[in-house]
Write a structure and sequence with these properties.
By secondary structure, the chain is mainly beta. The protein has one domain: Hypothetical Protein Aq_1857, Chain: A (Sandwich). Helix content is 12%, strand content 45%. The strands form two sheets. It has a four-stranded mixed sheet with strand order 3-2-5-4. Strands 1-6-7 form a three-stranded mixed sheet.
């Protein structure tokens, strides 16, 4: 499976949906915005428009997640987690297909 979600990420998505009174049609969409010197950039958004011709759908303990099919190869083995510790709180995306820092020529790495 290309994408997985940790139990912490699933629970946080459920909490956000409930807190914001989002209906059952609403799902989490993950997208790749691009890459650069600091690695890939991702977007996590709530969405209600699913296109079965263009999107792939997953479900984790009742939380629906979608991504565009064109991103599937790039997400193989990717894990979405939610971190809440002394260093901060937020979603973390660990994608083994892309290094965390690309070290592009000209960016001082």
């Amino acid at each position: 499976m290309p994408i997985t979600m940790t139990p912490a990420a699933v629970e946080e998505v459920k909490f956000i949906k409930t807190s914001n009174q989002l209906d059952d049609r609403t799902f989490l969409r993950v997208s790749i915005l691009g890459g650069g010197c600091s690695g890939m950039q991702y977007a996590l958004n709530f969405d209600t428009e699913f296109d079965s011709a263009a999107d792939t759908s997953y479900e984790f303990d009742g939380v629906k997640l979608a991504t565009m099919k064109k991103f599937d190869p790039h997400f193989d083995g990717t894990q979405i987690d939610f971190i809440d510790d002394a260093s901060g709180r937020g979603f973390a995306i660990d994608n083994p297909n892309f290094p965390k820092s690309a070290g592009c020529a000209g960016c001082g790495h």
